[in-house]
Design brief:
27% of the residues lie in helices and 18% in strands. It is an alpha/beta fold. It has a domain at 142-421: Alpha-Beta Complex (Spore Coat Polysaccharide Biosynthesis Protein SpsA, Chain A), CATH 3.90.550. The strands form five sheets. It has an eight-stranded mixed β-sheet, with helices on both faces. Strands 1-2 form a two-stranded antiparallel sheet. The radius of gyration is 38 Å and the shape is elongated. It is a single-pass type II membrane protein. Keywords: Glycoprotein, Glycosyltransferase, Golgi apparatus, Membrane, Signal-anchor, Transferase, Transmembrane, Transmembrane helix. Residues 121-136, 145-157 have a biased composition (Polar residues).
Length: 429
C-alpha cells in the first residue's frame, strides 16, 4: 500500500514539473488558461518627407523600396523623393567634356562691349531661318604636325592647314581665278539649284566677264548620291567652267564644311586676289556698291570681314527649338559677334587666316557663327558691320540701287531686278 502511494505521488510531481516548464515557454497545458500576447507594434509606412530623411553626420543607412540611402548624403526634393548625393560626381574628371568649346582669348576680345547682350539694334536671324535634315557634324580634333624649326632645338606643334579638311575636289576649276582678280565670288549652292546658278551668271555674276571689273565667279557645293544630278552637274561644269565640288555630302547641316572648302579653295587657287565674297545662290548683289565699300574699308584696314553683324545672340537651349544647341557643342552664354551667313566679304588675307584658324577650332554646325564668329575670334580677324548688307528680302528697286545685298530672291526676280536696277528710265528720288 505504501509503495503504491509513493508511485502515485511521483507521477503527480512529474506532471507538475512538466506543466511549469511548458507554462513558462508560453503554451499552457493541462487546462491552464491560454493568454494571447499582443503582437509587436510595427510602425506604419509614413510618407517620405524631410523628417523621414534627416541629414545627419553618421554613416547609418535607411531603406526605401530596397534601396539603401546613406543618411549623410540624403536629400529630399519637392517631390519628396530621396536623392542619393554620393552618386553625383564631385570633381570635373567625371563631368561631360565639351570638346567643341573654344578658349576665350581675352587679348582678342572686343573691348567696346558689343559682344555682350543688350544691343537691341542687331538681332540674330537664327530664330526664323529654315532647317534641314542633313548630316550632323561630329566633334573632331584638329590635325597637328610637329616642326623642328625652333631656334632652341625644341619641337613646336602647329596645325596643318590642309589635313583638317581632307575632302578631295571632285570637280575643280583652278583657272577660274585669274591672276589679276581683284574680287572673287564664291557662291554657296545646292546640287539641284541649276536655275539659281544660271540666274547668277545672267545677272550680277556677269561682272566676272566684264573687262572693266577684275572679278571671278565660282559655285561651290558638295556631293550627291544621284547619278543623274551628278551627270548634269558635270556637264554644267564643262560648259561654264565655274563649278567647284568637294567630296562631303551636300546638306544644310554641312554648310560649315562648304565654308571651310571655300577658304581652302581660295588659299590654294586664288590667294593673289584682293577680296573674297561668300554668298548664297538666292542673293542679289550690287557689285559696284560692294567693290566701293571694300576698297574704302581697305584704305585703313589691311584685314577684315565685312557684312551684317550680329551682337549678343544667345544659344537656343530649348530642345524643341530648330536652333537647339546642346551645351556639349557650345557652353558659352553668348555667341561671339558674327556676320550673317547669307553674304559676307573679306580681304583675301583674312580668308587665309580664317582657314588656318579652322584647323584649331572644331566644326560647329551654324556656319556663320563658326567661320565669322569662332574662327575669326581665334584668328583675331576684325568683324565689321555695314548697313548695305541685307540678310532679309528687299525688293524695292531704289533701295537695291543703294544696297549691297538682298536675300531670298528667286531666279526670275534676279533677272527682273538686274534689268530694273540698270534701267535709266526708272527714276529714284
Amino acid at each position: 500500500m505504501r509503495k503504491w502511494m509513493q508511485a502515485v505521488l511521483g507521477v503527480i510531481l512529474v506532471a507538475l514539473s512538466l506543466q511549469c516548464v511548458v507554462y513558462f515557454r508560453g503554451t499552457p497545458l493541462l487546462g491552464a488558461v491560454a493568454v494571447r500576447r499582443p503582437p509587436p507594434v510595427v510602425a506604419s509606412a509614413a510618407p517620405l518627407t524631410r523628417a523621414a530623411f534627416p541629414v545627419t553626420r553618421d554613416d547609418s543607412t535607411v531603406t526605401r523600396d530596397h534601396v539603401p540611402v546613406t543618411r549623410f548624403h540624403a536629400a529630399v526634393d519637392i517631390d519628396h523623393e530621396p536623392v542619393n548625393r554620393h552618386l553625383v560626381p564631385k570633381n570635373d574628371d567625371h563631368m561631360p567634356v565639351n570638346r567643341n568649346r573654344v578658349p576665350v582669348n581675352k587679348d582678342n576680345a572686343p573691348e567696346n562691349g558689343e559682344h555682350l547682350p543688350g544691343n537691341r539694334n542687331l538681332v540674330s536671324e537664327h530664330s526664323n531661318r529654315s532647317t534641314d535634315t542633313g548630316v550632323t557634324l561630329g566633334t573632331r580634333r584638329p590635325f597637328l604636325r610637329t616642326s623642328n624649326s625652333s631656334s632652341n632645338g625644341t619641337k613646336t606643334v602647329q596645325a596643318d592647314p590642309h589635313r583638317h579638311h581632307p575632302f578631295p575636289f571632285t570637280l575643280n576649276q583652278p583657272a577660274a581665278c585669274r591672276p589679276d582678280t581683284e574680287l572673287v565670288f564664291v557662291v554657296i549652292t545646292a546640287v539641284s539649284n541649276f536655275d539659281d546658278r544660271q540666274s547668277v551668271r545672267d545677272t550680277w555674276g556677269s561682272y566676272a566677264n566684264d573687262v572693266h571689273h577684275n572679278t571671278s565667279l565660282v559655285f561651290l557645293l558638295g556631293s550627291t548620291h544621284s547619278p543623274l544630278l551628278q551627270a548634269r552637274l558635270t556637264n554644267e561644269s564643262q560648259v561654264h567652267g565655274d563649278i567647284v565640288q568637294e567630296g562631303f555630302v551636300d546638306s544644310y547641316r554641312n554648310l560649315s564644311l562648304k565654308s571651310v572648302a571655300l577658304l581652302k579653295w581660295v588659299s590654294l587657287y586664288c590667294n593673289r586676289s584682293r577680296f573674297v565674297m561668300k554668298a548664297d545662290d538666292d542673293m542679289y548683289i550690287n557689285v559696284p556698291n560692294l567693290l566701293s565699300a571694300l576698297r574704302k574699308e581697305a584704305e585703313t584696314r589691311p584685314m577684315f570681314v565685312l557684312g551684317h553683324v550680329f551682337v549678343g545672340a544667345v544659344p537656343q537651349q530649348n530642345r524643341n527649338s530648330k536652333w537647339y544647341t546642346p551645351l556639349e557643342q557650345f557652353n558659352e552664354k553668348v555667341y561671339p559677334r558674327y556676320t550673317s551667313g547669307t553674304a559676307y566679304a573679306m580681304t583675301t588675307a583674312a580668308a587665309l587666316k580664317l582657314y588656318r584658324a579652322a584647323a584649331a577650332v572644331p566644326v560647329f554646325w551654324l556656319e556663320d557663327i563658326y567661320v565669322t564668329g569662332l574662327c575669326a575670334r581665334q584668328a583675331g580677324v576684325p568683324i565689321l558691320h555695314h548697313g548695305g548688307f541685307n540678310y532679309q528680302r528687299q525688293t524695292n528697286i531704289c533701295v537695291l540701287r543703294k544696297a549691297i545685298t538682298s536675300h531670298k530672291i528667286t531666279a526670275n526676280e534676279k533677272r527682273t531686278f538686274y534689268k530694273q536696277v540698270h534701267d535709266p528710265q526708272i527714276k529714284c528720288k
